[in-house]
Amino acid sequence: MHVAANRGDRGTGRGGPRRGALHEVEIVGEALEIIGADGVEGLTMRRLSDNLGVAVGATYKHVPTKEHLLRLVTLELYTRVGSCEPTGADWRRGIRSFLLRFREVVGAYPGMATHISAHVADPMPHRLYTSLNGTLRGVGFSPAGADRVVRVLFFYTSGAMLAPLTLDEHADAEFAAGLDLVLDGAHRSLERDRAAPDQTTTDRTAPI
User: Where are the coiled-coil regions (predicted)?
Assistant: First the structure.
């Protein structure tokens, strides 16, 4: 629903008095600008409205609460991250690239990692889980094994993002190195699971 800004809805935005309709995509974009500058705590409905050049009531017609607004912001960030796609035969490279991109995108907006971690049952974090889980099951992990790896990846990624680290080259390298350790461990676990049936067959047919 698009709400036209009438005379009572107009405020003074960064570019002066507002003209024209207010759109959801504009609201989300401005919210991300504020979060990028001052974090989630710096985002208020009044500040958002002032920046948009509308009265607070006009903003509330689109986003009834700050919580609803943050859900829209999360959706936009997940859209920017994209989906997890295996890279050739090396599934680890695809997941690695996806999580590095996730950290880069979400980490640019202070406080959003905390918000996402606190709302893991929301549709978008659940979609992330489904994407990773499907990738892992597609390369041979059992349902239980895929679920275990996703949980470990989630705890590692969210923990690293919640730590007081800046997004500099050193922090990026440390995160990538730790991610490689997790994925290498998952790969070894998959190889053991694949070899287990063959080992069982060997044991059964070997002479006693």
Answer: none
Of the listed ranges 11-15, 26-30, 31-35, 64-68, the one predicted with least confidence: 11-15
Residue 122 φ then ψ, to 5°? -65, 160
Instruction: Please classify residue 201 by burial: count the beta carbons closer than 10 Å to its beta carbon, then call 0-12 exposed, 13-18 middle and 19+ buried.
Output: exposed
Q: How is residue 166 written in tokens?
A: 């800046």
> Cβ–Cβ contacts within 10 Å for residue 175, how many?
22
Tell me the C-alpha distance between 205 and 208, whole Å: 9
Answer whether 108's CB lies under 8 Å from 117's CB: no
Q: How many CA atoms lie within 13 A of 169 on its CB side?
A: 0
pLDDT of 159 reads 85
Rounded to whole angstroms, how far apart are CA atoms 7 and 18? 10
Does pTM top 0.90 for this prediction?
Answer: no
CATH class of 3-64: mainly alpha
Q: Which among 176, 193, 99, 179 has a CA at the least distance from the CA of 137? A: 193
